[in-house]
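Quick one: structure for this chain?
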Amino acid sequence: MVHHADNDVKHAEDHGFDPADFVSPSDVAALLDDNWQLEVDERRAREVLSGAGSHHRDDLVLRARRLR
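Got it. Here's what it folds into:
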């Protein structure tokens, strides 16, 4: 799962989005039980120089593997 790590709530609200309405990687990770192994749970820098997503500087990345 990949999600923008955007702490600018005002910017999101100005564009009609409430960040609390979206599921984040930490929400998903909190629901995983012992049947899952977290392989990646980190913030990664991204470089998008132009376009609609260029104001997002980092992504939150979650990768989990089901064990059973």
